[in-house]
Specification:
By secondary structure, the chain is of the alpha+beta class. It has a single domain, classed as Immunoglobulin-like. It is 22% helix and 36% strand. It contains 3 helices and 10 strands; from the N terminus they run αβββαββαβββββ. The strands form 2 sheets. Strands 3, 4, 6, 7, 9 and 10 form a 6-stranded mixed sheet that branches. The protein has a 4-stranded antiparallel sheet with strand order 2-1-5-8. Strand 1 and strand 2 form a beta hairpin.
């Protein structure tokens, strides 16, 4: 009887999924935290097409992106969990990398360009973990006009 209980306990514990790592984005007085939309728990990269479908499915189900109001010239800060920093990560605004090389620290900040206008519908900021061409995780946030 004790053995059966131990097996059930072990099975229950192994069924627990560790949550995806998180990222926070903040500017002014607004901060948003999100778990990775997609995260590979192994060394294998994520399936980008499947991740995109999951993100769209979540959007249809009412799961929203973290929204950050920004004024051009304002600082945007990004904080990631240590496991993300260990993998290296990049931030992209409208598909453009913010830095030329991956970031390996848990915190990064940049000034949103003064000459850039944020359209009323907002723009997407993507945080991607892992080496170029081998994405390990993905977070999506929306930058909107303040």
């Amino acid at each position: 009887m004790v053995l059966a209980g131990s097996v059930l306990l072990a099975a229950g514990l192994s069924a627990c999924d560790k949550p995806n790592p998180g990222a926070s984005v903040f500017s002014g007085t607004t901060s948003q935290w999100r778990q990775a939309a997609c995260w590979s728990t192994t060394a294998a990269p994520i399936d980008s097409a499947k991740c995109a479908r999951d993100v769209v499915d979540n959007a249809v189900a009412g799961v929203t992106m973290g929204t950050i109001p920004v004024i051009p010239g304002q600082v945007i800060g990004i904080a990631v969990d240590p496991v993300v920093a260990d993998a290296g990560w990049v931030a992209r605004v409208n598909g453009q990398n913010i830095t030329p090389a991956p970031i390996t620290s848990t915190y990064f900040r940049f000034t949103f360009p003064e000459l850039s206008q944020v359209p009323p519908q907002g723009i997407v900021m993507e945080i991607a973990a892992g080496p170029e061409g081998s994405t390990k995780g993905l977070w999506l946030f929306k930058i909107v006009p303040a």
